[in-house]
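User: I'm writing a short report section on ligand binding and want a predicted complex to refer to. Could you take this sequence and iron/sulfur cluster and write out the structure as tokens? A short remark afterwards would be nice.
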Amino acid sequence: MSVVLPKFEIDVPLPVPPKPVAEADKLKYRTKIIDALKAHNAVLIAHYYTDPEIQALAEETGGFVGDSLEMAKFGARHDAQTLIIAGVKFMGETAKILSPEKRVIMPTLEATCSLDLGCPAKEFSEFCDQYPDRTVVVYANTSAAVKARADWVITSSIAVDVVEHLDKQGEKLIWAPDRHLGQYIKNKTGADMLLWQGHCIVHDEFKFKALEQTIALHPDAAVLVHPESPDSVIQLADVVGSTSQLIKAARELEQQKLIIATDKGIFYKMQQAAPDKELIIAPTAGEGATCRSCAHCPWMKMNVLENLSSIFERKGVDVSVDPAIAEKALVPLRKMVEFVNS
Ligand code: 13P
Ligand code: SF4
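Assistant: Sure. The structure tokens for the complex follow:
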């Protein structure tokens, strides 16, 4: 059978950036959030790509900062009745599916992800229907409905290991939605994978030539790259890994200078992990670049102290997932968690 690859490209409208807030107001919002967390038996769970002040607040209040997989596991384990997810929508949905008995709320439900947007459930399901003999593996950065169509859900921290495991069993795969991560996994494992053609608008902007020039300026630096970046950029990397893996590498590498090709929100925790090292953001300008994101996810940026401080006063902050979809999506999500724990 000839292979029909999806040609699903999107030109996503980006959200309006939040307005800057005066320092005095920030203090007021912080106090209000700290009080509200206690009053509502709630815990704040933030992704590495949110702004440093959100991550700091999660840490100070006994919450959590981590990658998408760790966030999901922390939320499921924690005994708070309400989980506040500071991140993007798929993270809130995953938390709700894994902890249906808890209230899961987000500062804004408008915070989404270009990978999620670029993989609509109907088109994806029709694509999968063409290849009934293939195992469907999707990235966590997808809607609950896309997860419900999948056999496996994985994050970048376990992607290579899971695909290696499936490849050893002789399984042929469909992978969605990130084309660069898919190509990276395919190159690493040699697995037979059909790749959906989505992309992350942040990582897609790291460019080979501009990065090569930065490396020439800092020949003593190590280059750390998230695998949602283009293959040519990955080729220049000393370390390729998920957010948590890159932070670990930053701590362990002997180089004092590190060039980082991922969202610059990660600098907050990376600098904590490697306080003496100089962190340099990989360029997103240069040939072929649009600098639409400038290395910071516009949807992660929508989580601000102001909307966090009013979260218990507003309607429309609750994450809800259709129970029939949640039931199906729970199957591959559980496999993901069990794979990590095995
Ligand atoms: P992690 O799974 O490494 O947290 O990455 C999520 C993400 O959105 C990367 O762009
Ligand atoms: Fe999605 Fe990219 Fe933002 Fe991550 S950084 S949430 S993959 S748009």
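A remark for your report: The two ends are 37 Å apart (CA to CA). The first strand starts at residue 42 and ends at 47.
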